[in-house]
Structures are given as structure tokens and as C-alpha cells.
Design goal:
The protein is of the alpha/beta class. Among the domains are: 81 residues, Conserved hypothetical protein from pyrococcus furiosus pfu- 392566-001, ParB domain (Alpha-Beta Complex), CATH 3.90.1530; 43 residues. Helices cover 51% and strands 17% of the residues. The chain has twelve helices and seven strands. It has a five-stranded mixed sheet with strand order 1-5-3-4-2. A hairpin with a 5-residue loop joins strand 6 and strand 7. Helix 4 crosses helix 6 and helix 8 packs parallel to helix 10. 25% of the residues are buried.
Length: 274
Amino acid sequence: MTACVLENVPVEEIQTNEQVREVDVKDAKTLALAASVKAHGIKQPLGGYRENGVMKLVWGHRRWTAAIIAQLRVVPVLVFDRVPTRSEALRAQLAENLNRVDMNAIDEAKGLERLIKETGETLGSIAEEYGFSEAGLSKKLKLLTLPEQIQGAIKAGRLPASAGYELTLVVDPAEQFRLAKEVVEGRVSRDALRGQIKRTSRPAGARSKSGSSVRVTLPIEHGSSLSWASHDRSLDCLIDQLQDLLGKARKARTKGWEFDTFVRALRDQAKEAS
């Protein structure tokens, strides 16, 4: 994309992108966003361009819908100085989605898949361009192999994406549904889920690396350290959890959050998941 300028654009002058599914105005998240928008305004600008006198959105369709529900007259839009190519529009959408704290992993994965299919980009080049690990992006794509009902639970926030990643390791759809239901109902934690999956997939006689949760201190550079506790004390588990944490930290940084704010958000998420 090229240069852009921030403008306040009348809501009625905006046209949605026909390539994007219509946002459900009755969706709980959209209604909650509309209430927030009505009280506090739109904090993140939408993105779009003018074509034949019409403002067309590249991203921000849910915020635009929320603004209509909240009866706002104008919304902030980053307006690009020319009509973007399809590839440029997809890149802009993906960059926006990957850096949103509230973006669900399924929509992120679909945006990533769309960019790969339509541009021929590799995961490696995308990871390098956007500052993410190739393994982390690969995990996101694997979520799209899950049954639609499980994807829907992740998108709705009933099933954590971290649990979804574990379920992609299960071959039997019936077993995926059974385990997903246990997580949604709060009967199984993410670590316990990982343990169950490893036990059922481990060859007979193989020794478990999992055990009781023990806290360990991991020394890093310049005298710093990280404290880590998990029922699964394997390098795979450590790498997965560090990648999840790094992704959340990157998103928080784009929001301008301070460290203490980020830590409080992590604690709140942990309480909600418990």
C-alpha cells in the first residue's frame, strides 16, 4: 500500500468490500462493540480507499457495522491515495488482523490462507514480513482443518485457540468433539487436554514426559529470567506456550500497552479460562 491520510468519513458514504462476508448485526460481539463505540467512540481507525467517489473498506467492517448500530455520523478512516491491488488489500487486512488483540484465531487463519492462495506467498516469507514465527503461522492454519462446529466455538470464544491447536493432533473427529466439549464445559484444562492427547497417541510402552506441575526458572540474557509451570515439561510445550505469549505481546505493543497492563490482561484471561 502507498501513502494514506486519516479522515473522518460520514458513515453513509462507506461501502463494504464485496469480498468480505456481511457482519451479523445480531452477533453478541458486534452488539458489545456497538455499546463500547457509543460510549467511547472508535479507537482504531478503519482502512479504505476512494473509487469513483465511493469510500470502500479494506478492513474494519465490524467497527463500521457497530458505528451504524451506535448511530455515529462519522468514523475515522485511514484513506489510501489510490485503489489497492488485490494483493495489497489482502496484505493490509492480514497486518490489521494479526495485530489486533481481540481478533479470533479462526479469522486470522482464514485471512492468512486467503493471502497464500491468491498471491502464492510462502509461510516463511509472510512470517518474515510480519515479524511472526513460521511455526506459529503454521499452527494457525491447522485450525482450519478442524470441523466447522469446533472452529465456530473458537471463533465465538467458547474454546481457546490453544486448545484448538491441541485438537488438530487428534485424527478421529468424534474424539475431537468429545475433547472439545470437555474443554468448553470446563472439565479439562489446556494442559490436561495436552496430556490426554499425548497419552492416547503415545506408542505402548513409551515413557511420559508429563507429570505434576512444577515451576522452574529459565535464565535468559542479561540476568533476566522467566518462571514457567506446566504439567507437560517438554520442549514442544515450552515452545508452543512461548510462541503464544510472544504473539500476545506483539499485539499488546501495537496497542501501546505498558508492561503492567499486559500482565493484568494475561491474568484476567487466565481467570476467565479457569
